[in-house]
Amino acid sequence: MDSSDKARLTGALKRESVKKNVAAIHVSGKLSLLQRKLSNVLLLNAYDTLTSQTSHRIDAQALCLMIGYNSNDIETLKSALRGLAETVAEWDMLDEAGRQEWGVSALLSYAKLKGGVCEYAYSPALAEKLHDPKVFALINLNIQRQFTGGHALALYENCFRFLKTGSTGWWSLDIFRRLMGVEGSEYYQSYKHLNAKVIKPAVAEVNKVSDIIVTPETRKMGRSVSDIRFLIRRNPQLAIMNIDDGEGARTTRTYARLMELGVSDRLARQWISEHGEAYVAGKIDYVTGQPEVRSPAKYLSRAISEDYVAPDAPRSERAGDPAIKARAAKLKRVQELVQARSPTQRDADKRLFMSQLTTNSERLDFENHGWMSALNAEAIFQFWAELVPEETE
Q1: In this predicted model, what pLDDT tens digit does every residue of 323-337 receive, in sequence order?
Q2: What distance in Å separates the CA atoms of residue 14 and residue 65, rounded to the nearest whole number?
Q3: 353 compared with 393, residue with greater pLDDT
């Protein structure tokens, strides 16, 4: 989905990830790739009000954009929604008192399309489980959009929640077939077929497009494979880009130098945001050039706040320059306005601003640096002046 499509999204849909409870991941029936993506997006849209509202609404066209298919293909959307209403979620877990709780529910209790809007609901019991923050996997929709195979996305969802432990633990092949949605198929009763058509392709896709690396291991009963588990680790080669306030600063050389001096992550990003990378880099050069500095981080803080500068420093590195001072003050105010917004509002603001950028270089700089994008500084100031004029006068 490109930036112009993303800009049409509203509210919670502008977030990039959704908490998925274990109970939501273990589903019976055969979910297609489209249905699995649809399930994640509907949960994302409803998450904030899962337990306080009995039904939820989303623009049908936005829903289509989020899962990446033709927004005019309403019949496909109807079919996917029908599949979710016919699919069962099952949970088997301990409650707060340590008692075993088993439950079953349709993934959706109902769904309807009317006037370009999709309305849907979860059963109260399932809504409670979906909203439980104690046991969940964090499903990143940026990553979800990369998947082209339903088995691969199912494997990713079922493995990601075990990332911290490094392994899924042993699953019997019957349980694994169920998780992949191929239970009941005589063809997949053969491990040879299951491995060739499900396991190997799914593992290859997960390792190629996601933020984890999975490695299958099997054990046998007699001469036949009886169980499977997946070892899981982070994928160090993959960078899934998210627009995140201050996140882009972490990719800069100036940020790395600040870390070397012992500056905290929050303060490093704040300095780069307020003063610009060139100015902070100049102050680092100044501090590292001073003899016998006992605490470089503290000295650097004073150098930035009091504008220490070498006599031969270029004008662009001087905060005393009225233009630099004005820019720093404006950027500081933008950061204050951003932090005052709710997470949903912040996501909406970023997508709206992105939709107004006209060149690839502008969009890339904003993707990398968020609201501290130097290339888009003037456009950012203008955007916030129009968005909250009473706060920027």
Answers
A1: 666 777 787 788 788
A2: 12
A3: 353
Helix axes 253-260, 277-288, angle to 10 degrees: 40
Query: 83: exposed, middle or buried (C-beta count within 10 Å: 0-12, 13-18, 19+)?
Result: buried
Number of other residues whose CB lies within 10 A of the CB of residue 365 = 19
Q: Which amino acid is at 218?
A: T
Q: Over the range 197-221, which residues count as b (16 or more CB within 10 Å of their CB) and which as e?
A: ebbeebbebbbebbbbbbebeeeee
Q: Which two tokens stand for residue 181?
A: 């949605």
Cα 286 from Cα 113, distance rounded (Å):
63
Grade residue 217 by pLDDT with cuts at 50, 70 and 90: very high
Contact of 41 with 66, CB cutoff 8 Å: yes
* CA distance linking residue 131 with residue 117, whole number of Å: 24
Please give the structure tokens belonging to residue 253: 């050389």
Determine the pLDDT at residue 219.
93
Q: How far is C-alpha 115 from the geometric centre of its chain's CA atoms?
A: 30
Residue 315 burial by Cβ neighbours in a 10 Å radius (0-12, 13-18, 19+): exposed
- What is the three-state SS of the chain? CCHHHHCCCCHHHHCCEEEEEHHHHCEECCCCHHHHHHHHHHHHHHHHHCCCCCCEEEEHHHHHHHHCCCCCCHHHHHHHHHHHHCCEEEEEEECCCCCEEEEEEECCCEEEEECCEEEEECCHHHHHHHHCCCCEEEEEHHHHCCCCCHHHHHHHHHHHCCCCCCECCCEEHHHHHHHHCCCCCCHHHCHHHHHHHHHHHHHHHHHHHCCEEEEEEEEEECCEEEEEEEEEEECCCCCCCCCCCCHHHHHCHHHHHHHHCCCCHHHHHHHHHHHCHHHHHHHHHHHHCCCCCCCHHHHHHHHHHCCCCCCCCCHHHCCCCHHHHHHHHHHHHHHHHHHHCCHHHHHHHHHHHHHCCCCHHHHHHHHHHHHHCCCCHHHHHHHHHHHCHHHHC
332 vs 375: CA distance, rounded Å = 17
